[in-house]
Write a structure and sequence with these properties.
The complex is a heterodimer. By secondary structure, chain A is mostly helical. Chain A has 13 helices and no strands. The longest helix of chain A is centred in the N-terminal third of the chain and has 42 residues. The chains are: A mainly alpha, B mainly alpha.
Chain lengths: 326, 312
C-alpha cells in the first residue's frame, strides 16, 4: 500500500509542476465562473422583465397571465455541467496521456520495474494520484459554484441542494476518469504515443460532440428557434400526446443519444440539478431511482476503463508499454 | 519560389499518409454524407409532426398557428454541415497545421532543411500552400458530396449549387485560420503536447465560451444549427458584454454568415441598445484568418533553425 501511495504522491507532484495543466485548470475556473455569471444575469433579466410586465398590467388593472419566474439555484449550474462534459473530458484525456508519456519519454518505467513494485501497484498509484487531482479540481468547481451562486446570483444553497451538488460532482469524477482511462489505455497500447492523444481526441469528438449533436438536431422541438411546441402553444402533456405518433423516430433518436456516455452523464446531472423541471419537486431518492440506468452506465464504464488499464498493464511483458515512446 | 513548391509537395504527400489525418477525414466525409440525410429526415419528420399537431388542435377546437418553418429553403437540409465545419472541420484543420509544423521538428530535419537554399518565409509559404491545398481539396470533395446528396433529396437549382460552393469557400477561410494557429504553435512550442493543446484550447474558447458570453448560449446549445431565441440580453450587464465581445465571437459570426449563404432563417440576437449587422462575419472571419496567418509569420520569424528539433 505504501508503494501505491508513493507513486500517487509522485504523480500528484508531477501534475502540479506541469505548466500545461495549470493552463487547463485556469481555463476550467474561468469557464465555471463565466457559466454561473451568465446564468445568474439571465435569471435576473427574466425577473426584471417579469416585474416590468407586472407593473404595466397593474397599471392597466389586469392580472398576470403566467407564473412568476421561480429560482431553483442549482438550475444555474447548467453551463458548468456542459463545460465538464466538454472540457472535463479533455482534462481527463490530457492527464491519462501525460502520465504515460512522462514515463516513456524519460524511460523511467523500466527503471521503476527493476524495483520491488508490481505492475498493478504502478497502475493503482497512477490512478490514485490523478484521481486525487481530478477530485480536487472538481471540489474547486463545487466551491466556485457555491460562491458564484452566493455572490453573483445572491442565493445560498440549502443542505439538500449541497448533497445533490455533491452527487453531481461524484458522477463528474467517474465521467472524467472514463476519459483518463481511455487515454491511459491508448497511450500504453500504441507504438507512437502522440497518436494515442490524437485518437483519443477523435473518440472525444464522436462521443462528446457528434452523437449528442445528431440526437439534438433530430429533436422536432429543436427545429424552430425557441422550440416548435412553444410556437404551436402546446403544453408538455399535449406535446407528449402528439409525439406518441412518432415513437419509432423517437426510439431511433434516443438510441443515437444513448451511444454517448456524455448523454448519460448529462441526463443524470440535469435530473439532480433540476434542469429538467419535472425533477425539481421530486425527492432525491426518487431522482436517483429514476436515473439508475444513466448512473449505472457512467459508473459501469468507469469500472470497465479502470479494469482494462489494469489488465493491459499486468499482461504486457515486452510490449509497447515499456518501449521508448515517440 | 521553387523551394516553396518542394516544401508544399512534401507536406501534402506526408499528410496524406498520416493515419490520424485520414481518420478525421473519413469522419468528416462520413458526416458530410450523413448531414444532408439527417437534415432531410428531420425536416420530413417536423412536417409530419406539424400535421399531427394541426389535427390535434382541430380536435380540441383551437386556433391553428402558422407553420413556423414555412420559409425554409431547399438548402436547409445542409444546416448540420455548418456545425460539422465548426466542430470536426476545425479540429481537422488544427491537426493538419499541427502535423505540418511538428513533423520536421520531430524527425530532427530542420537543420538539414535550412542548410539548403531556402528562407524562413519560403518555408512558411510552402506550408501555407500545402494547408490551403489539403483543406481546399477536402472541402471540394465535401461540396461535391453535398451537392449530389442535396440533388437526390431535394430540388435544387443552379443558384443553390453556387450557394453550396460559396458556403464551402467561406468555410475554407474559417478553417485555414485554425490550421495557421496549429502551425504557429507547432513551430514555437517546446513540447508536442503543448503545441497541440494550445490551439485546441483557443478553439474551445471560440466555439463554446465566447458564444455563451455574447449570446447567453449554453455550450451544448452551440451545437444546434437552430439557435434558441436569444432575446434574453435585456440585462444591461449582458448587453454590455455582448457589445464588447461579439466582434471576437468568430464561430457565431461564421454560423450567421453561412446560414445567410444557405438562406436559413436569420435569428438575430435581440439586444436593448445595439445590434451588430448580420454581415459583420463577412469581414471579421477573413480578418481572423489574416491575423492567424500573421501569427504564423511571427512564429516562423522566431523559429530557431539550429534549435528547432524536438527531443521527446
Amino acid at each position: 500500500m505504501n508503494k501505491v501511495v508513493t507513486i500517487a504522491r509522485k504523480e500528484f507532484r508531477d501534475i502540479l509542476r506541469s505548466r500545461l495543466l495549470l493552463i487547463v485548470i485556469l481555463f476550467v475556473a474561468i469557464v465555471t465562473v463565466t457559466a454561473i455569471l451568465v446564468s445568474s444575469l439571465v435569471f435576473q433579466s427574466q425577473v426584471s422583465q417579469y416585474n416590468e410586465s407586472l407593473n404595466i398590467l397593474k397599471e392597466l388593472g389586469k392580472a398576470p397571465a403566467g407564473p412568476a419566474p421561480e429560482l431553483f439555484p442549482l438550475n444555474l449550474l447548467r453551463g458548468v455541467i456542459d463545460y465538464i462534459e466538454i472540457i472535463g473530458a479533455v482534462l481527463g484525456m490530457l492527464l491519462g496521456y501525460l502520465t504515460v508519456s512522462r514515463e516513456k519519454n524519460t524511460r523511467t518505467l523500466k527503471l521503476i520495474l527493476t524495483r520491488p513494485v508490481s505492475r498493478m501497484e504502478i497502475v493503482s498509484g497512477k490512478f490514485l494520484g490523478n484521481g486525487i487531482f481530478i477530485a480536487l479540481t472538481l471540489f474547486s468547481v463545487g466551491v466556485f459554484s457555491y460562491l458564484g451562486l452566493l455572490v453573483v446570483g445572491g442565493v445560498a444553497l440549502s443542505f439538500i441542494d449541497l448533497i445533490k451538488l455533491g452527487i453531481v460532482l461524484l458522477i463528474s469524477f467517474a465521467y472524467i476518469m472514463i476519459f483518463f482511462s481511455l487515454t491511459f489505455f491508448l497511450s500504453l497500447s500504441m507504438k507512437t504515443i502522440s497518436h494515442a492523444l490524437m485518437i483519443a481526441f477523435v473518440i472525444w469528438l464522436l462521443v462528446v460532440l457528434i452523437l449528442p449533436q445528431i440526437g439534438d438536431t433530430m429533436d422536432p422541438d429543436n427545429q424552430v428557434p425557441g422550440g416548435f411546441f412553444s410556437s404551436m402553444h402546446l403544453t408538455k402533456t399535449q406535446e407528449k400526446q402528439v409525439m406518441a405518433n412518432f415513437s419509432s423516430y423517437e426510439t431511433i433518436r434516443n438510441s443515437i443519444e444513448q451511444l454517448s456516455i456524455t448523454k448519460h452523464y448529462e441526463r443524470a446531472s440535469f435530473a439532480l440539478l433540476g434542469i429538467k423541471p419535472e425533477f425539481n419537486a421530486m425527492p432525491l431518492a426518487d431522482i436517483l431511482s429514476n436515473q439508475w440506468a444513466n448512473l449505472l452506465s457512467v459508473f459501469g464504464l468507469f469500472t470497465v476503463g479502470l479494469s482494462a488499464c489494469g489488465v493491459l498493464m499486468s499482461r504486457r511483458h515486452k510490449g509497447y508499454a515499456f518501449d521508448l515512446g515517440t | 519560389m521553387y523551394s516553396c513548391y518542394i516544401v508544399a509537395r512534401q507536406e501534402i504527400r506526408t499528410t496524406m499518409k498520416e493515419k490520424t489525418f485520414i481518420l478525421l477525414l473519413v469522419i468528416f466525409m462520413g458526416m458530410t454524407l450523413a448531414s444532408t440525410y439527417i437534415g432531410w429526415s428531420s425536416s420530413h419528420t417536423i412536417q409530419s409532426v406539424y400535421n399531427s399537431t394541426v389535427a390535434f388542435l382541430q380536435e380540441q377546437g383551437k386556433a391553428i398557428p402558422p407553420q413556423p418553418f414555412e420559409s425554409a429553403s431547399h438548402l436547409s437540409l445542409m444546416k448540420n454541415m455548418i456545425i460539422y465545419i465548426v466542430l470536426i472541420g476545425a479540429l481537422l484543420a488544427i491537426t493538419v497545421g499541427y502535423l505540418m509544423g511538428i513533423r520536421d521538428r520531430r524527425a530532427g530535419v530542420t537543420r538539414i532543411i535550412f542548410s539548403r537554399n531556402i528562407t524562413k518565409r519560403q518555408f512558411l509559404l510552402g506550408k501555407v500552400l500545402a494547408i490551403l491545398f489539403v483543406l481546399g481539396s477536402m472541402l471540394l470533395i465535401a461540396s461535391i458530396v453535398s451537392t449530389i446528396s442535396s440533388m437526390l433529396l431535394s430540388r435544387i437549382t443552379f443558384a443553390d449549387v453556387m450557394r453550396i460552393a460559396g458556403f464551402y469557400g467561406f468555410s475554407l477561410v474559417y478553417l485555414a485560420a485554425f490550421s495557421f494557429l496549429g502551425l504557429s504553435f507547432a513551430l514555437t512550442r517546446n513540447t508536442s503536447t503543448i503545441a497541440l493543446l494550445s490551439p485546441i484550447i483557443i478553439w474551445l474558447a471560440i466555439t463554446f465560451v465566447l458564444p455563451e458570453l455574447t449570446s447567453a448560449l449554453y455550450p451544448t446549445a452551440s451545437l444546434n444549427p437552430i439557435l434558441p431565441q436569444t432575446d434574453v440580453l435585456q440585462s444591461t450587464a449582458l448587453n454590455a458584454i455582448h457589445t464588447a465581445v461579439y466582434p471576437l465571437s468568430i464561430s457565431e459570426q461564421f454560423k450567421v454568415v453561412t446560414g445567410n449563404i444557405l438562406m436559413l432563417p436569420y435569428q438575430p440576437v435581440v439586444t436593448r441598445n445595439f445590434d451588430y449587422p448580420f454581415w459583420l462575419g463577412y469581414i471579421s472571419v477573413p480578418i481572423w484568418a489574416v491575423v492567424c496567418l500573421a501569427v504564423s509569420l511571427i512564429a516562423v520569424g522566431k523559429f530557431k533553425q539550429s534549435q528547432g528539433e524536438l527531443n521527446e
